[in-house]
Prior knowledge:
The chain has 124 residues and is an alpha+beta fold. The protein is built from two helices and five strands, in the order αβββαββ.
Amino acid sequence: MSTELSATADNCLFCKIAAGKIPSKKVYEDDDLYAFHDIAPWAPIHFLIVPKKHITSMAHLDEADGALMGKIMTLAPQLALEQGCEPYPSGGFRVVINTGAHGGQEVHHLHVHVMGGPRPWTKG
Ligand code: 5GP
Ligand code: ZN
Protein backbone atom coordinates (compact mmCIF):
# COMPACT_ATOMS: atom_id res chain seq x y z
CA MET A 1 0.00 0.00 0.00
CA SER A 2 1.37 3.43 -0.95
CA THR A 3 1.66 6.06 1.73
CA GLU A 4 3.66 8.48 -0.39
CA LEU A 5 2.77 12.12 0.08
CA SER A 6 2.77 12.76 -3.66
CA ALA A 7 3.13 10.91 -6.91
CA THR A 8 3.74 11.76 -10.53
CA ALA A 9 2.12 9.94 -13.39
CA ASP A 10 5.39 8.03 -13.88
CA ASN A 11 5.46 6.83 -10.29
CA CYS A 12 1.85 6.29 -9.40
CA LEU A 13 0.24 3.14 -8.06
CA PHE A 14 -3.22 3.86 -9.48
CA CYS A 15 -1.86 4.85 -12.92
CA LYS A 16 -0.17 1.44 -12.98
CA ILE A 17 -3.34 -0.34 -11.83
CA ALA A 18 -5.50 1.52 -14.38
CA ALA A 19 -3.03 0.57 -17.13
CA GLY A 20 -3.07 -3.09 -16.07
CA LYS A 21 0.63 -3.02 -15.08
CA ILE A 22 -0.27 -3.99 -11.50
CA PRO A 23 -3.03 -6.58 -11.02
CA SER A 24 -6.37 -5.65 -9.51
CA LYS A 25 -9.90 -7.05 -9.32
CA LYS A 26 -11.59 -5.07 -12.08
CA VAL A 27 -15.14 -3.79 -11.61
CA TYR A 28 -15.44 -1.62 -14.75
CA GLU A 29 -13.34 -0.07 -17.50
CA ASP A 30 -13.86 2.35 -20.37
CA ASP A 31 -11.62 4.79 -22.25
CA ASP A 32 -11.62 7.31 -19.40
CA LEU A 33 -12.21 5.35 -16.19
CA TYR A 34 -11.12 2.25 -14.33
CA ALA A 35 -12.87 0.77 -11.28
CA PHE A 36 -11.50 -1.98 -9.03
CA HIS A 37 -12.00 -3.54 -5.61
CA ASP A 38 -10.15 -1.94 -2.70
CA ILE A 39 -7.40 -4.22 -1.39
CA ALA A 40 -8.37 -3.48 2.25
CA PRO A 41 -12.15 -3.00 2.20
CA TRP A 42 -13.90 -0.98 4.93
CA ALA A 43 -17.30 -2.38 4.02
CA PRO A 44 -18.75 -5.62 2.56
CA ILE A 45 -18.66 -3.90 -0.86
CA HIS A 46 -15.81 -1.43 -1.44
CA PHE A 47 -14.44 -0.41 -4.80
CA LEU A 48 -12.59 2.59 -6.20
CA ILE A 49 -13.28 4.52 -9.39
CA VAL A 50 -10.29 6.35 -10.88
CA PRO A 51 -9.74 8.45 -13.98
CA LYS A 52 -7.20 6.79 -16.29
CA LYS A 53 -5.40 10.10 -16.66
CA HIS A 54 -3.30 11.09 -13.67
CA ILE A 55 -5.01 13.68 -11.49
CA THR A 56 -3.21 13.99 -8.17
CA SER A 57 -6.23 14.82 -6.01
CA MET A 58 -9.64 16.46 -5.98
CA ALA A 59 -7.79 19.71 -5.21
CA HIS A 60 -6.22 19.50 -8.67
CA LEU A 61 -9.49 19.51 -10.64
CA ASP A 62 -10.25 22.32 -13.03
CA GLU A 63 -13.34 23.20 -15.05
CA ALA A 64 -12.29 20.98 -17.92
CA ASP A 65 -12.58 17.95 -15.61
CA GLY A 66 -16.28 18.57 -14.90
CA ALA A 67 -17.55 16.07 -17.48
CA LEU A 68 -15.12 13.40 -16.26
CA MET A 69 -16.24 13.84 -12.65
CA GLY A 70 -19.87 13.84 -13.74
CA LYS A 71 -19.25 10.55 -15.49
CA ILE A 72 -17.77 9.08 -12.29
CA MET A 73 -20.70 10.30 -10.20
CA THR A 74 -23.31 8.83 -12.52
CA LEU A 75 -21.38 5.58 -12.88
CA ALA A 76 -21.04 5.10 -9.10
CA PRO A 77 -24.72 4.22 -8.44
CA GLN A 78 -24.85 1.87 -11.42
CA LEU A 79 -21.74 -0.01 -10.32
CA ALA A 80 -22.91 -0.02 -6.70
CA LEU A 81 -26.05 -1.92 -7.69
CA GLU A 82 -24.10 -4.25 -9.99
CA GLN A 83 -21.70 -5.05 -7.15
CA GLY A 84 -24.54 -5.99 -4.82
CA CYS A 85 -25.45 -2.82 -2.93
CA GLU A 86 -29.12 -2.91 -2.07
CA PRO A 87 -31.33 -0.22 -3.63
CA TYR A 88 -32.08 3.18 -2.12
CA PRO A 89 -33.51 3.97 0.40
CA SER A 90 -33.20 0.86 2.58
CA GLY A 91 -29.81 -0.02 1.06
CA GLY A 92 -27.68 2.60 -0.62
CA PHE A 93 -23.97 3.27 -0.55
CA ARG A 94 -21.39 5.77 0.62
CA VAL A 95 -19.08 7.82 -1.62
CA VAL A 96 -15.83 9.27 -0.23
CA ILE A 97 -13.06 11.30 -1.87
CA ASN A 98 -10.18 11.73 0.58
CA THR A 99 -8.12 14.79 -0.35
CA GLY A 100 -4.72 15.74 1.06
CA ALA A 101 -3.17 14.86 4.40
CA HIS A 102 -5.99 16.26 6.52
CA GLY A 103 -8.48 14.51 4.25
CA GLY A 104 -6.77 11.17 4.85
CA GLN A 105 -5.54 10.70 1.26
CA GLU A 106 -2.89 7.97 1.06
CA VAL A 107 -2.70 7.35 -2.68
CA HIS A 108 -2.09 10.52 -4.66
CA HIS A 109 -4.15 9.75 -7.73
CA LEU A 110 -7.75 10.97 -7.48
CA HIS A 111 -10.04 8.09 -6.53
CA VAL A 112 -13.66 7.81 -5.52
CA HIS A 113 -14.43 5.22 -2.83
CA VAL A 114 -17.81 3.52 -3.20
CA MET A 115 -18.87 1.44 -0.20
CA GLY A 116 -21.99 -0.48 0.61
CA GLY A 117 -23.50 -3.60 2.07
CA PRO A 118 -25.03 -4.31 5.45
CA ARG A 119 -23.73 -2.54 8.59
CA PRO A 120 -21.61 -2.62 10.66
CA TRP A 121 -18.57 -1.71 8.56
CA THR A 122 -14.92 -1.77 9.62
CA LYS A 123 -14.62 1.99 8.95
CA GLY A 124 -16.72 4.85 7.55
P1 5GP B 1 -7.11 6.88 0.37
O1 5GP B 1 -6.78 6.79 1.83
O2 5GP B 1 -5.95 7.44 -0.43
O3 5GP B 1 -8.40 7.62 0.11
O4 5GP B 1 -7.42 5.42 -0.11
C1 5GP B 1 -6.52 4.61 -0.77
C2 5GP B 1 -7.17 3.26 -0.86
O5 5GP B 1 -6.44 2.48 -1.77
C3 5GP B 1 -7.18 2.49 0.47
O6 5GP B 1 -8.52 2.17 0.84
C4 5GP B 1 -6.33 1.26 0.19
O7 5GP B 1 -6.82 0.09 0.81
C5 5GP B 1 -6.39 1.15 -1.32
N1 5GP B 1 -5.18 0.57 -1.91
C6 5GP B 1 -3.90 0.88 -1.61
N2 5GP B 1 -3.04 0.14 -2.35
C7 5GP B 1 -3.82 -0.65 -3.13
C8 5GP B 1 -3.50 -1.65 -4.12
O8 5GP B 1 -2.34 -1.94 -4.41
N3 5GP B 1 -4.56 -2.27 -4.71
C9 5GP B 1 -5.86 -1.96 -4.41
N4 5GP B 1 -6.80 -2.64 -5.05
N5 5GP B 1 -6.18 -1.04 -3.48
C10 5GP B 1 -5.17 -0.38 -2.85
ZN1 ZN C 1 -1.73 8.36 -11.30
